Fold this sequence. Notes:
345 residues, elongated, Enolase-like, domain 1, 3 domains, single chain, alpha+beta, Beta-Lactamase, 10 strands, three-stranded antiparallel β-sheet, Arc Repressor Mutant, subunit A
Amino acid sequence: MSSTLSARQELILSLIVREYMQLPRSGGISSKALVEKYDLSLSPATVRSEMVALGDAGLLYQPHTSAGRVPSDGGYRYFVQRLVQDDTLPAPEQRLISHQFYQARADVGQWSRLAASVLARHTQSAALVTALHSGHARFKHLELIATRERQVLMVLVLQSGQVHQQIVSFDRELAQTELSAVATKVTQACQGMVAQEIESGPWEMSDVQIQVLQLVVGVMHSDDAFASGEIYLDGFQTLLADNDPAQSTPVRNAMQVLEQRDFLEDFLAQALGPQVGGVQVVIAGEGKWEELRACSMVLARYGADDVATGTVGVFGPTHMAYDRAIGTVRFVAELMTNLVVENYA
């Protein structure tokens, strides 16, 4: 990427990128159209000369000889890294989103679903959100509910908000009062612990309580192996419907790849890393992910590093509105991080 663009070249590149984000076209944008639309104090010939220089720098390209110029992947990257001046979400939208999350602040299970909906709606892109997950699941709450005869419904809630339910059988029929007492004792004893800490004991408990502890540990070990938690998607069909027909096939192919859990986990680990903080923009796969060459993603981690984290992001064609996407993703990630700190840290 060139680091020596003049102020005039940066202005022209910025206008072309913004024009193309608003109304992508196969033929590109001409110098004459740019001068007339933005009332530039430059001649079309001067703008055309600067476009040639930007093309030589790899920031624009010309689809064919008689066409105008189109931003390249490098042009979008330069725009994101150096020319986005204000990606702050407008105050009315911040208040609206904050109110939605405030209403759901006590329902951890709704956070990811709400985040995906908010991101898709406010960016007009597809949204991808992974539920809170810790490298090691931490115990929060247990309920045991009598069903019939010796069968009991075990409901285990983890600090990440994950809820696990399963039917378990005991050697004898247990009254609900006894089950409630066992659940209360286990909850008090194991609060905030990981599976290994629960296993290490020692515990002065009854046979039923020990059996429940073993069941809890088994569920928590399984959760530890489930690396990214549940994945929530929103807006993908709208993206396909609104996208340029010429790009619909590569976008659809990229969407199918992202739905493959192994690929997604590897991609997020490399693109973001495990720590919370900052927004990462991946344009056209950045040369690493050929499957995403026709698309871009704006991603951020949310949560607390020592408690649990998740990922929020939006996905779209390379001509997506980056400044709005960055501002929305950053704001939603910060909101969700505050909720995690408020509820768990």
